[in-house]
């Protein structure tokens, strides 16, 4: 082990109280950044979950639709015309919208209806925990997430309620299909969905287009737009990105999360800078001795940088462990914290950069050392 | 006796500005010869420490020249002076200036590490230097586990381990009792026997006079006298070998 690393590590761990204080600061800062960015990723995934799970290559919607939950009506009678376009395998309408769930005890709670043609490709419930999708084809069958028992006043399969005065029965339960708006999703057959959200049979909110193998998405898109000039056609990826951008940046939610992350970086940088400066100050005679002995500036900088790196590595390890605990406990919540390996790597780099940048003030202090002080 | 390993000619040093200006050195000439232990003696405020700082390439003289092992320090930048220090000068300080978090061996190795020497041979050389000053049994001890005399011996080992041309010692016995002080001086006198190495000891302690080959007396920033020392080093070394 290089001697300057030994000197750096011993100086750092020598004052345990200060080291613990530094660790608390770094861990607080890194966990804050990690959670904020994890929420950002989690939120990003959450807001596009429906789009990403739909069995569609293209989405047809009214011009200016901002996100999945922004339903504007389109003409459902275009289905035949779209299906006739060269390269289109299927064109299935999708109906969505808010409605009221009337519980058996008389209480009411808002729900978000998702109605798709259950015979063809579309947007069906996934992660089925109990029951089956086929049961939704019945007169009253609906699928809800099992995390909403209390919210919907149900206790499992067979529970009954009403939507817009129509009796419904829970015939399928999903696991983990939660809405970031906290309004429960209710999956139903498309025809009943129109009744529940109150739109005529000739309307829908989206068309989900499935392309034939080898079909040109751009050509199909242009053909649809030629038939429906007021409609937009987007690939699933494009619509997903538009929804994510709207919710993250159109609403300020993303900016708030980023602001929290930046605050974390600032807090961490200041704490590490203060600690390194104070540590350097406490060991200033030693640095002066090094200088008197003929040490190059580079050698002294290396000692300080090693201290910064040690702070970063130890602090990050603690923060990563806490981050994983947060991920575990939020995994089935309304807004899970998602920490991907990429995010973890990026935050490690950020921590290293933050700690090295913090060494700047300490280095400035050392640069000004007059070695003559060793004689005083 | 060898030629000068460190030479200062007409050194002047003015400290401060304006009305607060002090002429700390006023034309000092000094030659530190290899194989000799030279004492620089003078009262407080006579310019001893300023001269030591200039000779040690830590302070640039206002005028005059300093040459160390044949290298002229005139116009040298801070990094060049630092290189001269680490390659040609060993320092011993009154308050030892050891690194409290490093062992005796690591403290000594540090002088070699600064020169970029690999750690394995550096460790061997550090042990040899500690053995030379009678601390072979303390290689793994931290400064807090050693007496003042032992710490100063570690500092001496650190100063000699890189085999410098000049060793500059600032009041090396001031913080020690008489017995340990004599032992340290005996070691320094022994170190000064090497032909290519000169030892300069700054002191105001007259008890060190017997160890000197040469004595420079400084007053008010001027060398006011140079005397030959007494030749009692071997005798004193033998006497001081006991308390180590």
Secondary structure class of chain A reads: alpha+beta
Strand content of chain A: 15-25%
Principal-axes shape call of chain A: elongated
CATH topology of chain B: Rossmann fold
Multimeric status of the protein: heterodimer
Radius of gyration of chain B: 17 Å
Query: Helical element count of chain A?
Result: 12
Strand content of chain B: 25-35%
Total count of strands of chain A: 12
Structural class of chain B: alpha/beta
The largest contact between protein chains, plus residue counts on each side, is:
A-B, 26 and 31 residues
**What is the average per-residue confidence, as pLDDT of chain A, rounded to a whole number?**
89
Précis, in short:
Chain A is of the alpha+beta class and 376 residues long. Chain A has twelve helices and twelve strands.
Care to describe what's here?
The complex is a heterodimer of chains A (376) and B (244). Chain A has 376 residues and is α+β, with helices and mostly antiparallel strands. Chain A is built from twelve helices and twelve strands. In chain A, strand 3 (88-102) and strand 4 form a beta hairpin. Chain A starts with a helix and ends in a 9-residue tail after the last helix. Chain B is α/β, with parallel strands linked by helices and 244 residues long. Chain B has a single domain (4-98, 165-241), classed as Rossmann fold (3-Layer(aba) Sandwich), CATH 3.40.50.300. Helix content of chain B is 32%, strand content 27%. Chain B is built from seven helices and ten strands. Chain B has a six-stranded mixed β-sheet with strand order 6-7-8-3-9-10. Chain B has a four-stranded antiparallel β-sheet with strand order 2-1-4-5, with helices on one face. In chain B, strand 4 and strand 5 form a beta hairpin. In chain B, helix 3 packs parallel to helix 5 and helix 5 (148-160) packs parallel to helix 6. The model of chain B has no long low-confidence stretch (mean pLDDT 89). The chains are: A alpha+beta (376), B alpha/beta (244). The A-B interface holds A 2-4, 6-7, 10-11, 14, 285-286, 289-297, 299, 370-372, 374-376 and B 49, 52-53, 56, 58-59, 79, 82-87, 89, 91, 93-94, 97, 99-102, 106, 109-111, 113-114, 119, 158, 170.
């Amino acid at each position: 082990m290089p001697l300057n690393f030994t000197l750096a590590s011993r100086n750092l761990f020598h004052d345990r109280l200060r080291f613990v204080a530094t660790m608390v600061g770094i861990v607080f800062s890194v966990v804050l950044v990690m959670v904020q960015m994890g929420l950002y990723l989690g939120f990003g995934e959450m807001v596009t979950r429906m789009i990403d799970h739909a069995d569609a290559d293209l989405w047809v919607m009214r011009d200016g639709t901002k996100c999945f939950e922004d339903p504007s009506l389109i003409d459902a009678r275009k289905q035949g015309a779209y299906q006739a376009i060269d390269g289109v395998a299927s064109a299935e309408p999708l109906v969505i919208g808010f409605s009221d769930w009337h519980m058996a005890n008389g209480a009411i709670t808002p729900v978000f209806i998702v109605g798709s043609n259950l015979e063809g490709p579309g947007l069906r419930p996934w992660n089925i925990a109990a029951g089956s999708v086929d049961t939704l084809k019945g007169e009253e069958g609906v699928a809800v997430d099992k995390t909403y028992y209390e919210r919907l006043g149900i206790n499992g399969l067979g529970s009954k309620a009403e939507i817009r005065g129509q009796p419904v029965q829970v015939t399928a339960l999903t696991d983990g299909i939660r809405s970031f708006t906290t309004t429960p999703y209710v999956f139903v057959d498309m025809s009943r969905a129109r009744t529940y959200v109150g739109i005529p049979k000739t309307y829908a909110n989206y068309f989900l287009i499935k392309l034939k193998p080898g079909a040109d998405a751009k050509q199909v898109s242009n053909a649809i737009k030629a038939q429906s000039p007021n409609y937009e056609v987007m690939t699933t990826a494009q619509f997903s990105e538009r929804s994510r951008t709207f919710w993250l940046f159109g609403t300020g939610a993303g900016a708030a999360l980023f602001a929290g992350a930046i605050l974390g970086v600032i807090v961490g940088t200041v704490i590490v800078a203060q600690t390194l400066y104070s540590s350097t100050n406490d060991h200033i005679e030693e640095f002066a001795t090094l200088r008197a002995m003929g040490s190059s500036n580079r050698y002294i900088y290396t000692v300080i940088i090693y201290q910064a790196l040690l702070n970063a590595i130890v602090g990050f390890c603690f923060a990563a462990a806490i981050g994983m605990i947060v991920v575990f406990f939020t995994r089935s919540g309304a807004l899970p914290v998602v920490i991907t390996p990429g995010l973890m790597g990026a935050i490690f780099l950020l921590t290293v950069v933050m700690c090295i940048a913090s060494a700047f003030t300490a280095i400035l202090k050392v640069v000004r050392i007059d070695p003559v002080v060793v004689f005083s | 006796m060898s030629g000068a390993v460190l030479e200062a000619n007409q050194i002047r040093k003015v400290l401060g500005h304006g009305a607060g200006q002090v002429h700390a050195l006023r034309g000092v000439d000094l030659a530190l010869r290899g194989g000799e232990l030279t004492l620089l003696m003078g009262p407080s405020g006579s310019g001893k420490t300023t001269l030591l700082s200039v000779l040690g390439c830590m302070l640039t003289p206002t005028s005059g020249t300093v040459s160390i092992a044949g290298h002229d320090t005139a116009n040298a930048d801070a990094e060049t002076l630092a290189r001269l220090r680490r390659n040609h000068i060993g320092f011993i300080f009154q308050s030892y200036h050891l690194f409290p978090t490093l062992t005796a061996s690591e403290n000594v190795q540090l002088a070699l590490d600064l020169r970029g020497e690999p750690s394995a041979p550096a460790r061997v050389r550090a042990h040899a230097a500690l053995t030379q000053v009678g601390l072979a049994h303390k290689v793994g001890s931290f400064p807090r586990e050693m007496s003042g005399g032992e710490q100063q011996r570690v500092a001496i080992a650190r100063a000699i381990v890189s085999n410098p041309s000049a060793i500059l010692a600032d009041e090396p016995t001031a913080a020690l009792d008489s017995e340990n002080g004599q032992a340290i001086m005996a070691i320094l006198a022994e170190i000064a026997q090497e032909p290519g190495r000169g030892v300069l000891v700054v002191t105001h302690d007259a008890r060190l006079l017997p160890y000197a080959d040469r004595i420079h007396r400084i007053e008010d920033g001027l060398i006011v006298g140079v005397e030959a020392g007494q030749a009692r080093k071997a005798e004193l070394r033998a006497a001081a070998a006991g308390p180590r």
